[in-house]
Amino acid sequence: MKSFPLATIKPNTYLTGQAYLEENFILFTPETLVTDEAIARLRVWGYQELLSEENVESKSSGFDGVHDGDVTSAFLVEEGQEHQQKGEVKKFYIELLEFTHKFFDLYLKKSQLPIEPLTDQMKAIISNLKNYRRFLLRFTELDREGFSYLVSHTINTAILGIAIGDNMKLPSHKLIEIGMACLLHEIGMYRLPDTFQNAHRTLTIEEKRALTAHPILGYRLLKELGFPPNVTMGVLEHHEKEDGTGYPQKLTGDKITLSAKIVSVASAYDAQISSRPYRDARTGHLSLIDLLKESGKSYDDQVLKRLVYTISLYPIGSLLELNNGALAMVHDSNPEAPKQPDLKLFTDEHKNPLSDFPIVKMVDNPGLSVKKVLGRDEVAAFRADKIIPA
């Protein structure tokens, strides 16, 4: 890949080849008009150079004015905003990881779990979900490197639990309590041997039996420290099941608190999409299907429904192949039609990369359907071939 100065591109012309904003990110194709506004926008963002696989030059468009509502400029504005929002989300997520690591470390060293800073973090999650929901719910794209599974898992559970509660129209103080219960639902694990936290294998039957004590240990700890009932009961009951086969009390669904039902669903979903030393991560879609099979048995059907409404049946960020052959990413959920999310198209039906990534609402295109969710190897292959962006 070669770099070339942005200044060499003449406004209102076409290029003789493809130009990339970043590697694997096609910005201009020979069919794309490069307008004055597009060039100015790139300069505002600090881009002085573009990339190409070959020498590219400007060629006349036969057009001297500026396109009103130019497609490329509109695309650049949208992509620039998304790039900025992704950066904000990644920064916030790292801050959450660091906070939670230090918070749990404070408990291990001083047996302290201060409520006020935890409340502030839950408020920050609520705020970021309001502003950046599409990016904050794309867990598989957020970097957890360098932090323990328990830290990242409890954070993701908190984010998703608050998102589910918000979809249920719960008031802010309830969302804060649900977020706390989610973040602290595994705190009892820290009273068990390290084997349970850092196991690189499937636990033995005896170890699994000992593991069932962690909800009680967490409940007692949080109750002693003065946490609200919605938090303590959410921690105590998060392994109870609707049909009464859960633990530690074998409660049936009518006796399980709502906060515990939400923690249960959010925790189970993140556990499935997370890589563990003894198994690979599953796609969000397959994870949802597995959870839905347990509706009314392991999980509350209404909470599961709200999970689907929140992230769609094809979770935000999933990469799909459509029935016409095109490749797309789930751009946003559609609460009114969970099977028909909004899509960002990466290719046409012949798998030719698109330069402007149009947003398509499946609900407005009844002939469009999902053929399959792309697996990890398929995504890697398409990215290596520069068919979809990295």
At a glance:
The chain has 390 residues and is of the alpha+beta class.
Termini gap: 15 Å
CATH topology of the largest domain: Hypothetical protein af1432
What is the number of beta strands? 11
H/E topology pattern: EEEEHEEHHHHHHHHHHHEEEEEH
Largest sheet: 5 strands, antiparallel
Description:
- By secondary structure, this protein is of the alpha+beta class.
- It folds into 3 domains: 60 residues, no CATH class; 232 residues, Hypothetical protein af1432; 66 residues, no CATH class.
- Helix content is 46%, strand content 11%.
- The chain contains 13 helices and 11 strands.
- The strands form 4 sheets. The protein has a 5-stranded antiparallel β-sheet with strand order 10-9-8-7-11, with no helix packed on it. It has a two-stranded antiparallel ribbon with strand order 1-5. A two-stranded antiparallel ribbon has the order 2-6.
- Strand 7 and strand 8 form a beta hairpin.
- Helix 2 packs antiparallel against helix 3, helix 3 crosses helix 5 and helix 4 packs across helix 10.
- The longest helix is centred in the N-terminal third of the chain and has 40 residues.
- The protein is elongated.
- 35% of the residues are buried.
- About 3% of the residues have low confidence.
Descriptors:
390 residues; 3 domains; 5-stranded antiparallel beta sheet; single chain; two-stranded antiparallel sheet; 13 helices; alpha+beta
Q: What layout of secondary structure does this protein have?
A:
Elements: E1 2-5, E2 13-15, E3 19-22, E4 25-28, H1 36-44, E5 49-52, E6 58-60, H2 71-110, H3 115-136, H4 149-167, H5 172-184, H6 194-197, H7 205-211, H8 214-224, H9 229-236, H10 258-273, H11 284-293, H12 301-311, E7 319-322, E8 327-332, E9 342-345, E10 359-361, E11 370-373, H13 376-384
Antiparallel strand pairs: 1-5, 2-6, 3-4, 7-8, 7-11, 8-9, 9-10
